[in-house]
Amino acid sequence: MQTVLESLNQALHTALASDERVYVLGEDILDPYGGAFKVTRGLSTAFPDRTMTTPISEAGIFGVATGMALRGLRPVVEIMFGDFITLIADQVINHAAKFRYMYNEQLSVPVVMRVPMGGRRGYGPTHSQTLEKIFLGIPGIRILAPCSLKDPGKLLLHAILHDDDPVLFIENKILYSRPVLSHEEDNDFKITTSDSQNQSDYAPAFHLSIREAPSPSLTIATYGYMVDLCRQAVLQLAYEDEIFIDLVVLTQLSPFNIEPIINSVHRTHHLLVVEEGTCTLGWGAEVLARSVENLGKEIYKAARVASLDVAIPASGPLESAVLPDIDDIIQAAKKMV
Amino acid sequence: MQTVLESLNQALHTALASDERVYVLGEDILDPYGGAFKVTRGLSTAFPDRTMTTPISEAGIFGVATGMALRGLRPVVEIMFGDFITLIADQVINHAAKFRYMYNEQLSVPVVMRVPMGGRRGYGPTHSQTLEKIFLGIPGIRILAPCSLKDPGKLLLHAILHDDDPVLFIENKILYSRPVLSHEEDNDFKITTSDSQNQSDYAPAFHLSIREAPSPSLTIATYGYMVDLCRQAVLQLAYEDEIFIDLVVLTQLSPFNIEPIINSVHRTHHLLVVEEGTCTLGWGAEVLARSVENLGKEIYKAARVASLDVAIPASGPLESAVLPDIDDIIQAAKKMV
Amino acid sequence: MSNNSKSDSDQISKVELADLYRSMLRIRRFEETVLGEFSRGYFFGTTHTYIGQEANAVGVLRNIAPEDIVVSNHRSHGHFLAYGGDMRALFAELMGKSTGVCGGRGGSQHLYWKNFYSNGVLGGTSPIGTGIALAEKFNQRDTVTITFLGDGALGEGVVYESLNMASLWSAPVLFVLENNHIAQTTPAELNLAGSIVNRFNAFGIDSEALDTSDVLVIQSSAVRAISEVRKKSSPQALILNTYRFGPHSKGDDTRQEKEILELRKTRDPISILAERLDPDQINPIEEEVDDEVKQAFQKAESDPIPN
Amino acid sequence: MSNNSKSDSDQISKVELADLYRSMLRIRRFEETVLGEFSRGYFFGTTHTYIGQEANAVGVLRNIAPEDIVVSNHRSHGHFLAYGGDMRALFAELMGKSTGVCGGRGGSQHLYWKNFYSNGVLGGTSPIGTGIALAEKFNQRDTVTITFLGDGALGEGVVYESLNMASLWSAPVLFVLENNHIAQTTPAELNLAGSIVNRFNAFGIDSEALDTSDVLVIQSSAVRAISEVRKKSSPQALILNTYRFGPHSKGDDTRQEKEILELRKTRDPISILAERLDPDQINPIEEEVDDEVKQAFQKAESDPIPN
Ligand SMILES: Cc1ncc(C[n+]2csc(CCOP(=O)(O)OP(=O)(O)O)c2C)c(N)n1
Ligand SMILES: Cc1ncc(C[n+]2csc(CCOP(=O)(O)OP(=O)(O)O)c2C)c(N)n1
Ligand SMILES: [Mg+2]
Ligand SMILES: [Mg+2]
After folding, report:
1. pTM for the whole thing?
2. In whole angstroms, what is the distance from residue C187 CA to residue A19 CA?
3. Looking at residues B272-278, what average pLDDT do you find?
4. Per residue in C151-183, pLDDT tens?
5. D153 partner at 20 to 30 Å CA-CA among A141, A149, B261, C62?
6. Per-residue pLDDT tens for B17-49?
């Protein structure tokens, strides 16, 4: 079975092999090291001319990639830790993301930035965050987050080869070592791909429900590594508490298309959003906002499970207390139904 | 009558005069120019040693101010255009805002950054944004937004002299020239200060309702310059459509304490949030999220009026179409009740 | 540092001199019209005019190859017109018309046309120019990218990240540093420590510094620099000491009027070049340019607004 | 560039030599213990050890005044211990204990104690160090702030913003640039164009560069530099060419083992100093330090975890 890391690594190899316009830039990505998390392993050996290790200049690297994208290349940038997307905020928000619109649709900026996010490794306050929230909703960029379902590499490959706008690709660090699950392999869950996508949205949304379970009374919406935690919580809630859940998994975070969530809540009337970032103004805020705008009093209850609104401590026990875990999800779900 | 600009300018004078630890830093803030929007006018003449004009180095300036704050000073930084808070994102998020918590409450960082935000001047995509959303919800900083009600200068003064944590102070550019209204002066509205504040929250929330009006059927929550637009919309809705509204105005955006809003929606069951920034994951998203978490199906309808999710065009007619205006508020309100 | 040198102009034909003169005058008259008409409400937003610096844009861009690329900043009108941009489209852009360079979306500071890019965030364009230059290099094109920066933009850290990468990776980019000795209202000495030349050299980028408003001198240095960048496929810098005669944007000049009068007397690139032209060459150009500007303005004015 | 100079050490008392030796050895043994015990799960997160670079922290910080301030980076253990930080508190911090320097919240890269600050975002500390130095200056204290940076951190633009402001405003800060010729796995020549010395000089900051692992040489340059920063109340830089013997963090060394063995032979600050001590001085220090480290580790280990 392939891990998420292998799937992403393979996608990068395929992208470089299949399109000469693809370049990969990042800090310490040369072999034998192959990048801090090894997602870029082998690239510099196979494609030495198009794998560029860079100085430690996050803003500069991303700006260089933007310039390359303006002239017909398809650069992929790795930001070593997602915590440092703060350093590219200006290049993303006031440059790459704006160009297509402000230059009157005369050009586009096909640049992909891959960023490892997330905690649970004890790296402490500046190396553990889930920070995509600062870019969620910014006009002009797409934000994707693979999970262990189906084909994370395919999602990345499509973004690199076919998306003409800037893409922020969120990779949870814990997810790297998880096996990729095909829909067929899953014994516990029936997994369907939501068909309520926009034409331009290539990133799938999934519905997971326990096979042969009664109709669900709660919708859980989530993405990324939290999908794994939610699956376990859903199983436990079903078997121990007879609470049945429709688990909706998104792989495109922004622009928001929460139709799959709305459709589910329309039936369950209860919505729990689970994410790893700090709670306030995270992804879940917009999900809840759009849900109540769409559904009004059809929503009986709504809640979020997320990190506490503090920095992420280095110490294991403190970190665990701050980050959301399976038990937090179970407790939140039980309170709702 | 004093303008908002005069009120803020006076507050800076008072702060410098009353506390030797106060320093003001920013680009082009020396007299006779006195800053791009003149909020710092006169400071360099009155306090030449503590008014520092800086190179064009937003990240660096804010980092320097953070260092000054660590050693007992109370620096105030002006970022010339709020659009450039992107450049200080790392210094804010991974430095100043984290320090108190990650250093185990052993120190604090009393730095205030003032940022002019907002459009309606035709400055175009990189000089017109309302970007506080990228910092809203970040743990460790307070975000304030004065409006033309009561005493914007007092709010600033308190932040500078008494708040020991980083404060982002959002000043809408259009607001600068508006007169400050005391509660007593208002002929149309009854204005009360909400008493549902946390102990540590010194920034007031206001309730505005038309004098002698029947009980309201809609809550509008807003802040900053949009308060002025909302007041006009509320008057028009009352007189032309007999829709009566409880207008709730917050001056502290983050940390979120939306109790005044919740209390109002508890009675009206309808919530409209109005803000100038782009809609997705703006302030309103968290307001709606918390409202539905708190009130569940007590909310019959919820909606947001905000900018379209695009960059802000320079051309006047295009800019107007993107930014929210009085008519947008009226239309949205009418759709709800 | 070079200085005005008569010998250069001896080699240059009357036609070329007239063309240079026309180029600079087009910018001058365009900017004067912008400043003059602003208060009448024709334009949106604000504007940064190029009056006094015309010799830089014209001298640098006069001889570039058609595929060469220009990365400009907030003070972009002069660069745009010298690059060959359409005057009516630029007026229309400032007026927010749908015929504008970017259909009115960009405005004065945000232009894109052919191989010309500008943005209003100081310094932020420098890594982008470097990336553009690299892309052209990777694609085996011998394009040169010209990135304009002001003295004030040297405050931004991302500029140094860009110098480092441009140098490390031999990006064929020419950094043109227009040092007009002021950033908005702040004199360079309150903004910049050390030396501008050394800042480039410290990153292994050779530079030449000029202190002249003579377009011929600038032109000859630029031709040399651009051809070296092209030949060596590596970065260089050209530091142009220059003076802004107008306000930073509108009505925000805090300098002494005397100072500016003196500058206009000694450092006006248009008067300096005029001395080299036959007196009877000048009038027709003046008329032609006045007419062009007037027509461009009127056409733009009657262009439709976008919806 | 200076080199090992015997004459310096002649002046220095046996006690002082022993103290320097002890200081460096404490760092060495601490770091060896961290690396050795990491795989046993005592520590959280990751760690960047200082093995091979001990002479820098000890040489620079040995003679600072009690009020002087240290701004450190991700590789902070050596700086912290040389500053006078408590070994047990540092172990406890890495173990995530409530007795840790920051109660376990910060971990290896995020320390604050007395006048010592570290953070894990490369370069981001440099404006903060500059602001700290300015605050001290404004408060009429003659404190010196010492900001440690690595060669890799020179990639970050904010460093240059800081050099510019430190120079413009005469901040009494000493930038100590530890050039260990590698950033994580990237050799300096793939990261840095031009010259490090010139990068400081370009901003008007004088620097001295050393290429030595002799703590006495570093110490004497540091004493001179710090006293000049204090006297002139203006910035300087000290560039220390140095070598890291261990991995970047844990098990991520991509260099040849041969290369590191060679470095250990020629550039080990502890062996270099050992030659200057009486042989019979060394053993007791070794034992004392071993004992201290063992005790500190054990105490930290039995300290409570926070809740
Ligand atoms: C990042 C950023 N900070 C601040 C500004 C506001 N601003 C616009 S132009 C200017 C001065 C620029 O000076 P310089 O680079 O010397 O160019 P000049 O105006 O002299 O041509 C400033 C501060 C900006 N546009 N971008
Ligand atoms: C802004 C930022 N980017 C990337 C990293 C990840 N990182 C940690 S240490 C390091 C290498 C640092 O090299 P250098 O500055 O030479 O210090 P050294 O490790 O050699 O002591 C990198 C890339 C970081 N901590 N901060
Ligand atoms: Mg200038
Ligand atoms: Mg290094």
Report:
1. 0.97
2. 49
3. 98
4. 999 999 999 999 999 999 999 999 999 999 999
5. A141
6. 999 999 999 999 999 999 999 999 999 999 999
Helix, strand, or coil (residue C9)? helix
Q: List CB contacts (< 8 A) between C202 and chain D.
A: 194-195, 198-199, 201-202
CA distance A54 to A67: 15
* Count of structural domains, chain B: 2
| Domain spans of chain D, in order of start | 7-300
Residue A196 pLDDT grade (very low, low, confident, very high; cuts 50, 70, 90): low
Average pLDDT over residues D280-295: 97
What is residue D252's predicted lDDT score, i.e. its pLDDT? Answer: 87
Grouping H, G, I as helix, E, B as strand and the rest as coil, residue B193 is strand
Together in a domain, A131 and A239: no
Both B205 and B324 in a single domain?
yes
Contact B159, B280 (CB under 8 A): no
Rounded Cα distance, B243 and B216, in Å: 8
Residues of chain C with pLDDT under 50: 1-7
Q: Are residues A19 and A118 in the same domain?
A: yes
Residue among A57, A83, A121 minimizing CB distance to D155: A57
Q: Domain for residue A182, yes or no?
A: no
Whether residue C105 and residue B123 make contact (CB cut-off 8 A), yes or no, is no
State the pLDDT at residue A58. Answer: 98
Grouping H, G, I as helix, E, B as strand and the rest as coil, residue B270 is strand
Report the pLDDT value the prediction gives residue B1, as an integer from 0 to 100. Answer: 84
The pLDDT of residue B185 is: 78
Work out which ligand 1 atom sits closest to the CA atom of C109: 25
Maximum distance among all Cα pairs of chain A, rounded to whole angstroms? 58
Please report the ipTM that was assigned to this predicted complex: 0.97
Nearest to B122 among C107, C120, C191 (CB): C107
How many angstroms separate the CA atoms of C133 and C42, rounded?
37
Residue at B183 is within a domain: no
Question: Is A152 in the same domain as A259?
Answer: no
Distance A175 CA to ligand 2 centre (A): 24
Nearest residue to B57 via CA among C185, C183, C47: C183
Segment 147-186 of chain C within 8 Å of chain B by CB: 152-157, 183-186
Closest CA to A258 of A225, A223, A208: A223
Q: How many residues in total does chain D contain? A: 307
Q: What angle do CA C284, C287, C288 make, to 5 degrees?
A: 85
For D7-300, give the CATH class: alpha beta
CB D98, CB B99: distance < 8 Å = no
For residues C140 and B40, the answer to whether their CB atoms sit within 8 Å is no
Asked whether residue D250 carries a pLDDT value surpassing 80, the answer given is: yes
> Residue A221 contacts by C-beta under 8 Å, 6 or more apart in sequence?
A248, A249, A250, A258, A261, A264, A271, A272, A273, A274, A284, A287
Please compute, for residue A327, the number of CA atoms within 13 A of its CA located in the half-sphere on the CB side: 4
Average pLDDT over every residue of A268-276: 98
Mean pLDDT across B219-242 = 98
The verdict on B290 and B263 lying in the same domain is yes
Q: Are residues B169 and B200 in the same domain?
A: no
pLDDT computed for residue C270 by the predictor: 98
Residue A157 resides in a domain: yes
Q: Chain D residue with minimal CA distance to C199?
A: D202
DSSP sequence for B67-122? HHHHTT-EEEEE-SSGGGGGGGHHHIIIIIHHHHHHTTTS-----EEEEEE--SS-
Nearest to C218 by CA among C250, C252, C242, C194: C242
Instruction: For strands C116-118 and C173-179, give the pairing.
Output: unpaired
Q: Could you tell me the pLDDT band of residue D4, with boundaries at 50, 70 and 90?
A: very low
A113 and A258, same structural domain?
Answer: no
Domain of B316, CATH number, reads 3.40.50.920
Q: What is the mean pLDDT of residues D147-172?
A: 98
Residue D7 has pLDDT above 60, yes or no: no
Residue B182 lies in a domain: no
Same domain for A315 and A166, yes or no, is no
